[in-house]
Write a structure and sequence with these properties.
470 residues, alpha+beta, Heat Shock Protein 90, 3 domains, 14 strands
Length: 470
């Protein structure tokens, strides 16, 4: 069991660490993507602002050779004509996307009738002289400034000077800061993730160990109870009002029920041995006398003892089946017909059984077991009645009620539950003249409960068997 709990702690720690690792990797990936997109967006905005600033100068008619261009180290800018000629470039800008920009070509004289570079018939967006295009295009690329080549985000903006000549301004913003920030975050995550996972695993191990400590105490106590067979012992209840506390209470309730069951079984065996001893001893004595002196053999008494043994064995067998959880058959039984059949067979009773109201109601169950209940109730009534025994069947809502009553002294209120215990009789005598072994009413109640009903005593001498109507 200790090995089992150790495995539980290992699985809990590993599971928590795995969940945290997956969550952190997903969150870190999302963070890196968001950070990268934000930094790239800032670079795009920075490049677009620089391109528009230069494009605005061109639109106002400022000569290309006098354009105020940003420092090439921070924001490389190149101004191109429509045919790709370089009109202007920032200081130390040597190439953009691998194309050299060292040669400068001033714009040629404008051709008449709008021909030449100012012809915008094929443009999707017509830009008038002295205007800057509202839209900017963004792309990634490289630029060589001085002797160093690096990655940049470029913004491309078109503009027309006052003469109607179009110029394309490309300005770049460096990505070194973006890459440095993303790299720093990635490094921090790679270093911090294993440390965090170790912390999570350790905390989970300790918390699980603390949480399972009461379970280990329950296990040890259960092992001790099993070894000692002392069912009076109980497992410790932590009192934490959680699942483990409920487990401990349920375990103690189970131990209590098991102890009660064992005690009841012991009493049952003791009482059964006592009940069997008397008829067996009597039968043996009569047989021994009969062997020695055949003329003194009490044949009727021997037969009575044999019948009593047979009935007691049948009762014990039925109780054993009921205790084993035997389910009754699911057949429809007419209680009125059952009463008539049972009464018609009782021809040797001390008092004739009267039949009262017999309502036509059916129940589901075992005909033999319910017949046994009715027979036991009638036997009990015959044993205590002064001169009348009555059986009837009525319907009360969804219930069928079988009543057996007599005119005897009745059962005292304080004894109305005890009489349904096994081997219990209200008189202290246990001779066969006083009746059965005290199992009839116990069997009757067990059968009633197995059929989803109840068996109670009403008004002292009225036994009511309530069963759900089919």
């Amino acid at each position: 069991m200790r090995r089992f709990f150790g495995k539980v702690r290992v699985r809990a720690a590993a599971g928590a660490s795995l969940v945290v690792a997956v969550a952190l990797v997903a969150a870190g990936t999302a963070l890196l993507l968001v950070l990268k997109n934000n930094l790239v967006g800032q670079a795009d905005l920075q490049a677009e602002n620089a391109a528009r600033e230069v494009a605005t100068q061109i639109a106002t008619g400022k000569p290309y050779e006098k354009l105020d261009l940003p420092d090439g180290d921070d924001l490389p800018v190149v101004v191109l004509a429509e045919d790709g000629r370089v009109l202007a470039a920032g200081d130390d800008v040597r190439a953009v996307d691998g194309k050299a920009v060292t040669e400068r070509h001033p714009p040629t004289a404008r051709q008449p009738d709008g021909a030449g570079s100012g012809d915008d018939d094929d443009d999707d967006r017509e830009i008038k002289p002295g205007e800057v295009d509202d839209e900017a295009r963004h792309s990634g690329g490289t630029a060589t400034v001085g002797h160093r080549t690096a990655d940049y985000r470029f913004a491309t903006v078109e503009a027309k000077d006052t003469q109607g000549d179009k110029a394309v301004v490309r300005a770049g913003a460096p990505l070194a800061a973006e890459r440095e920030a993303v790299g720093s975050v990635r490094t921090a995550m790679l270093i911090g993730l294993p440390c965090l996972l170790l912390v999570v695993a350790g905390v989970t191990w300790l918390v699980t160990r603390r949480a399972l400590r009461p379970v280990e105490g329950i296990r040890r106590e259960m092992a001790a109870i099993t070894a000692s067979t002392d069912l009076s012992r109980r497992v410790p209840e932590p009192g934490s009002r959680d699942e483990i506390d409920r487990l401990a209470r349920t375990t103690n309730e189970t131990l209590g029920a098991l102890q009660e069951s064992v005690e009841r079984q012991r009493r049952f065996v003791a009482d059964a041995s006592h009940e069997l001893r008397s008829p067996i001893a009597s039968l043996r004595t009569q047989l021994e006398v009969g062997v020695a002196h055949p003329e003194l053999l009490d044949a009727e008494g021997a037969v009575e003892d044999a019948v009593r043994l047979q009935n007691l064995a049948a009762d014990l067998l039925l109780l054993a089946r009921l205790d084993a959880g035997e389910r009754p058959a699911d057949t429809r039984i007419d209680l009125a017909a059952l009463v008539r059949e049972e009464v018609s067979q009782r021809v040797g009773d001390r008092i004739a059984v009267e039949v009262g109201e017999l309502a036509g109601v059916e129940v589901a169950g075992s005909r033999s077991q319910l017949g046994r209940v009715l027979g036991n109730l009638l036997d009990n009534a015959q044993r205590h009645a002064a001169g009348a025994v009555r059986a009837s069947v009525v319907r009360e809502g969804e219930w069928a009620v079988l009543r057996v009553e007599d005119d005897g002294p009745g059962v005292p209120p304080e004894e109305r539950e005890r009489i349904f215990e096994r081997f219990v009789r209200l008189d202290d005598a246990r001779s066969r003249d006083d009746g059965g072994a005290g199992l009839g009413l116990a069997i009757a109640r067990d059968v009633a409960e197995r059929h989803g009903g109840t068996l109670t005593v009403r008004d002292g001498s009225v036994f009511a068997l309530r069963l759900p109507a089919a």
